[in-house]
Amino acid sequence: MKSTQTLCSFSEALYRLILVLMTISRGVPSMPVPTDVPMCTASDTAQYSLKFSGKWSQAAFPKQYPIYRPPAQWSSLIGVTHSYDFHMWQRNEFASNGVREFAERGEAWTLMKEVEMAGERIQSVYGLLSAPAVAGGTRQMDTEFEVFARHSYLSFIVRLIPSPDWFVGVDSIDLCDGDHWRDSVTLELYPYDAGTDSGFTFSSPNFETIPQDKISQITSSFPNHPANSFFYPRLKHLPPIAKVTLTKIKKTNQIISLPLEPTQSNQLPTGNEIEEDTLINTPLDCEVSLWSPWGLCKGKCGESGVQHRTRYILLHPANNGAACPLLEEERKCFQDNCL
Ligand SMILES: [Ca+2]
User: Domain Spondin spans what residues (predicted)?
Assistant: First the structure.
């Protein structure tokens, strides 16, 4: 249900996005720059393509992998180009309301409003960018954006669907390197927890975190609880769950003064291909329940009998993980409770 809402509201989101962009764009070029900040002296502007590649496959993340209602997929991507003094989100800091709503439900309005206000207040934000949701954990999405010497940073966020409040993203990657623009930047992405919902598994019901936690990276051992969907005690590190590649594109005569092109670039047939390097196989060991109590002793009165106990499979093994142990056990007993 969450995913349907995300997908349905996207076109409306894009429309509103355009309104926000128009608002943000006003007056920004006159922004004063403090002198104690590392300066970007690259030529005025650079255009980049952004390619987001999901690597959330069942082979790489076999535990509780969401197969239906909804299957594993990615929300729309919401990004910002900005200066050093703005943060869309930060590890070990509290998520804003906008990040909370996006991470929990994929609703972008508050987040965009926050960005818009930051643009008006401190003129730290140049523009917003977006790419539409993709209905598959290993799909790709593309968009384009423009950066300026005074607004050379990119941040973005993409929500994991389904999940309680989990997302991937980038916080303040600087595309300017002194006097030039970086040609290409590739980053592996790992899941983060927004600290606002305490669900342990992809499909946990809503369970608000009170008081709110800070944003934390989810690892194979944190949160340290066997019920967590990313808890893999045999792994030292989780495999990356997504990848983003930012590539500088040649300037054309076409002026992309504001990144209003994402819908068009997303219709390119190059998107939505599965990458070969998503074929990571993460072993998943079988997990079984505790034993049931011993059953009744069956046998003739006054003689030895047999009783049984059982346990059941909590998690089926995958990718050559440890097989399940015996699920039923019997022992001799003495039938002394004769009627
Ligand atoms: Ca959480």
Answer: 36-226
Taking the centre of ligand 1 as the mean of its atom positions, its distance from the CA of residue 272, in whole angstroms, is 28
What token pair was written down for 106? 């994929």
Last residue of a domain, one of 278, 296, 322: 278
Q: Can you give the pLDDT at residue 10? A: 54
The CA 140 to ligand 1 mean position distance, Å, reads: 25
Select from 232, 253, 278 the last residue of a domain.
278
Categorize the per-residue pLDDT at 35 as very low, low, confident or very high, splitting at 50, 70 and 90.
low
How many structural domains does the chain have? 2
Domain boundaries, position 312: 287-334
User: Are 193 and 273 members of one domain?
Assistant: yes
Distance (angstroms) between ligand 1 centre and the Cα of 163 equals: 9
Q: d(Cα 239, Cα 184) in Å, to the nearest integer?
A: 22
For 269, other C-beta atoms within 10 Å of its C-beta total 6
Residue the block writes with tokens 């909590």:
314
The answer to whether the CB of 300 falls within 8 A of the CB of 281 is no
Cis status of the peptide bond prior to 259, with omega within 30 of 0: no
- What pLDDT digit, counting tens, does each position of 237-265 carry? 999 999 999 999 986 555 444 443 333 34
Q: Please tell me the distance between residue 149's alpha carbon and the centre of ligand 1 in angstroms.
A: 36
76 neighbors 168 (Cβ within 8 angstroms): no
- Say yes or no: 200 and 123 in one domain: yes
